[in-house]
Amino acid sequence: MVGQCPTETSVTDSSARFEAIFHQTIGGIALTDLSGRFITVNRKYSEIVGYSQSALLQMRMQDVTHPDDLPRNLQQFRAMLEGGAGFEIEKRYIRSDGVIVWVSNSVSAIKNSSGDIIQAVTFTTDVTERKRAQDEVRRLAAIIASSDDAIISIDLGMNIQSWNRGAEKLYGYPAEEAIGRPATMILPPDIGDEEHVIIERIKTGDHVQPHETRRLHKDGTEVHVSLRVSPIYDENGGIVGASKIARDISERKEAERQQNLLVGELTHRVKNVLATVNAIVRQTLGPAGPDSPAASLLSRLQSLAKAHDLLTESNWKSASLQDIVREALSPYPESMFEVAGDDVLVNARAVLSLSLVLHELGTNAAKYGALSSEAGRVRISWRTIESTDPDQTALKLRWEERGGPPVVMPSHKGFGSRLLQTVVTSELRGGVLVDYAPTGLIYDIEMAFSSLTG
User: Which residues form the PAS domain (predicted)?
Assistant: First the structure.
C-alpha cells in the first residue's frame, strides 16, 4: 500500500484548516475576480447578503451593492488596481428579500507570483445596528440642538457637560462659557442648595418630580422655569449624571402676578360695595332684630360675601360644590348635617346662585324646620342625571330634613321661597319640587349641568 508523503499530508492538513477557518469565521469573506464576479464566499457572507452560496457564484459584487454606493465603491476599487493598496468602505447591500443592510468592507488585492493583481478578497462585517444607533444619536442631537427649551446635562459632580442653543438663549451664556463649570452658576443665591438636593436624589435613583423654580441669567436677572430632571445611564446601567430640560415660564408668571393684582383689587372693591350696602340697609331699615327685614337682607349679603371669598381662592374661576355647601352651612353645627355627592367644579356665576339657594334653605330650616330643633338633621345630596344630549344632562340636589317640628304647609310663599324659585329657574335653568312630608321637608332641585360648569 502506498501512503502519502509528509509534504502531501501537510498540504492537505493546511487546506482543511483553511477551509474550516474560511467557513466558520464570524465575519463574511468573499473572493472575486477583477470584474467583481464572485469566485467563492463563506457562509457568513451568504447570511449577510441573504443569498445562497450557489446563487452568489452566479452574481457580481455590483449586483448586491446599493446603486447609490456603486460609484464610490468602483472609484476606490480602481484606485486599488492602480496602486495595489487595499481600502475600507462602509456601504449598503440589498438583500434578496429587499432589506438594506449596512456593512463595513475591508478589501485587499491578491497578486500572482509576478506581482500582478488577479483577484480581490473582501472581509465584511454587518454594521446595521451600529449605523441605526448612530442615526438615532444624530437625530436626538439635532432635536436637542434645535429645541427652544434649555437642555443641559451635568455629571454627578454637578459640572455642566452639554449646553444647547436653548440654554444659551434662556441663561445668556454661550456653550463655551458654560461647559465644565458648576451648574450652580445659574442658581439664585437663596436656592443654592437646590442643585445638591436634586443630584443626591438622582444618585440614589429617586424620581424628581417636574417642578417650577427660578434660575439666574448671565445679566443677573431671574427667570422662572418649569424644570424636568432625568438620570443619565452608562452602557452598564449605572447613573453617571442628569439631564435637565427647562422651559421659560416668565411671561406666564408675570401674567399670573397681574391677574392676582386684579383679583385682589376686585375682591377689595366687592367687599367695599357689600360693606356700603350693609350700611345702607341698617340706616334704611333700622335696627336688625332677629326676624326683621334688615336681618334677613343682611344675612343674604353675608352669604354672598362668603361665596365671594370662595371665588377669590380660585382667582374667580370656579369653586368646589362640596366647599359651597359647607360654606353655606357654616353658621350651623356641623353635626346636624350629612353631605353626600361627587365633587363638581362650579363656575363663578353659579357659585353665587347656589350660595343664595342654600342660604335660603338653611334660613328656612333654622326658623321653622329641622335646624330649629336640637334633634333635627339635614341631609344634602346630589347626583348627575346623564343624557345623550349634553344640554339635557342635569344635576339633582336634594335637601332632606328629619327630626324637626311637625311640617305644616304654608298658606302662601314668603320672599325667601320666591327668591329660591327665581334663582333656580332663571340662573340655573332648573326647577324646584317641594314635598311637605310628615317626616320632614324635602326640596328636590334639578339644575342644567351646563349652567353649573359651562
Answer: 14-84, 136-205
Tell me, yes or no, whether 137 lies in a domain. no
What pLDDT, in 10s, does the model give residues 382-424?
999 988 777 789 999 999 999 999 888 887 777 778 888 888 8
> Which residues have CB under 8 Å from 296's CB, separation 6+?
363, 415, 416
**Full residue range of the structural domain in which residue 181 is found:** 147-248
pTM over 0.85: no
Establish how many alpha carbons lie within 13 A of residue 264's alpha carbon, considering only the half-sphere containing its beta carbon. Answer: 6
* pLDDT exceeds cutoff 60 at 439: yes
- Which CATH number does the domain housing residue 180 bear? 3.30.450.20
DSSP 166-227: HHHHHH---HHHHTTSBGGGGS-GGGTTHHHHHHHHHHTT-----EEEEEE-TTS-EEEEEE
* Same domain as 344, residue 272: no
Q: How do strand 337-340 and strand 345-347 relate by DSSP bridges?
A: unpaired
Per-residue cell: 315: 382667582
Domain end: 205, 231, 248, which one? 248
Contact predicate 252/240, CB 8 Å: no
Rounded Cα gap, residues 131 and 332, in angstroms: 74
From 127, 156, 171, the end of a domain falls on 127
Residues 267 and 308: their CA atoms lie apart, in Å, by 8
Same domain, 109 and 78: yes
Residues 152 and 278 in one domain: no
- What does the DSSP 8-state code read for residue 337? E
Q: Are 371 and 358 in contact (CB under 8 A)?
A: no
- Encode pLDDT of 62-107 as tens digits: 999 999 999 999 999 999 999 889 999 999 999 999 999 999 999 9
**pLDDT grade for 256, boundaries at 50, 70 and 90:** confident
Evaluate whether residue 83 is within a structural domain.
yes
